[in-house]
Amino acid sequence: MNKVVNLYNLAKKEISKYDFTILYVLAAVLMGYYLLHDLLGGTFYSHCAWDSYTLQAMAWRDGRVSLGQNYTYLELATYNNDWYVSFPPVPSVFMLPWTYFYGYETPNNIIMIIYVMITIFFAYLVARHFKMSAGKASFYPCVLVLGSNMLWMSTMGGVWFQAQLLAMMLCTIAIYAMLKNKRIIAYLCVALAVGCRPFSIVYFLVLLVWFYLHDKKEHHKGFFTTWLYQLEGWFAAAIVGVSYMGYNYVRFKDPFEFGHNYLPEFLEAENGQFSSVYFMENLKNIFTRKIEIAENGKLMFTEFDGFLFYIANPLFLIFFGCLILCIIRKLIEIIRHKKLIITRNFVVMGMIVIALILNTCMLCVHKTFGGWQFGCRYMCDLLPFAYLFIMLAKKNKDKLTGAEIIIGVFAIFFNLYGTMWMNMK
């Protein structure tokens, strides 16, 4: 608890140094969501019924780990003639306090907006850490969340969307904690993100490298001794991991089974939930599947398994631009100095790229790439650390380029269009 209080005090201290731009931005975001929900049918205060996590939290309150009955409109695991939530449990932990005030009718639409605002707030702090002005530091967090498929997902408290948005929020907090050398908080947040989106486990690699290089510079110790400085962070993450394994074992007699393999969809699949046979098709879809234009000029989007993820989530265009520029600079550096100069940021950025590639590959061996979404919602899992890469690449660069502004504005408007498009289905 003291660590959490310390992080809160640190964030409060950071904000006190600057103007109130981020507070104005958050107020505008809140008002924007209110107006958007009004257009969607006055759903701002309502409860979205696709909420397995509230049901799971209520079951916990009754001393049960199963739901005790089937809800045909939800993706539930069937095991030993009972029904279980087929997703990792962390979103239920966050929903549990709300159930004591609202019971089964938790205001999950509002809770999603809270997650959005917390994510934008910590993404702003990350940008400010890299000496960006208040304006630029507010621009990028809005593109990160509102200029991605998260915009549509954040308009309803469905089980799938709660997990993704909460994972984004936790990873963003982890990045800020990492930058401020709050390693227990950083490791704990990534561990909790794994309990929302399991493939978030790859981002431990970034934390490991970041803290190792930090400690190596600060303490000048040997290779093995330097790793020991991370033990407290590893221990915090391990406690969370063991909790998942225990919970899984109680439910399914398997410490590594969250329940998805017991969904009818995957029980009936010839190749199961995960298989290399899915890889190339998913990869092809997210890199080459285009928006189609009908004869009457109407745009036609896929509703399953995604299309061009860097159009659905244009922050990736900025990421690719930064990556290409970094490669070009390193090539020029090699030509000029006849050697590769390896810096801390260079190593960390390289590890981020490796983690993003690993996450993408893991997602591509899944049977599906998400359904009933505008674009490629699974690829939103990569956004927080792609954002960190951009921040590292643009360190101490205070001006927004024309390309950044165009991409950012397009991202928000395109996903706003996508949100309306999905709700007209």
Helix content: 55-70%
Proportion of strand residues: under 5%
Main beta sheet strand tally, sense and closure: 2 strands, antiparallel
- Quaternary structure of the protein: single chain
Total beta strands: 4
The secondary-structure class comes to mainly alpha
Low-confidence stretches: none
Radius of gyration: 22 Å
Helix and strand sequence: HHHEEHHHHHHHHHHHEEHHHHH
Task: State the domain count.
Answer: 1
Mean pLDDT: 90
End-to-end separation: 45 Å
Shape: globular
Largest sheet, spatial ordering of strands: 1-2
Helical segment count: 19
Keywords, please?
two-stranded antiparallel ribbon; 19 helices; mainly alpha; globular; single chain
Protein model, in words:
By secondary structure, the chain is mainly alpha-helical. The protein has one domain (2-423). The protein contains 19 helices and 4 strands. The chain has helices at 2-16, 21-39, 52-61, 90-102, 108-129, 134-146, 150-153, 159-179, 183-194, 204-219, 223-228, 231-252, 264-267, 279-288, 309-312, 315-337, 344-364, 383-393, 402-423, and strands at residues 76-79, 82-85, 292-293, 299-300. The strands form 2 sheets. A two-stranded antiparallel sheet has the order 1-2. The chain has a two-stranded antiparallel sheet with strand order 3-4. β1 and β2 (82-85) form a beta hairpin. The longest helix has 23 residues, at 315-337. It is globular. The relative contact order is 0.12. The model has no long low-confidence stretch (mean pLDDT 90).
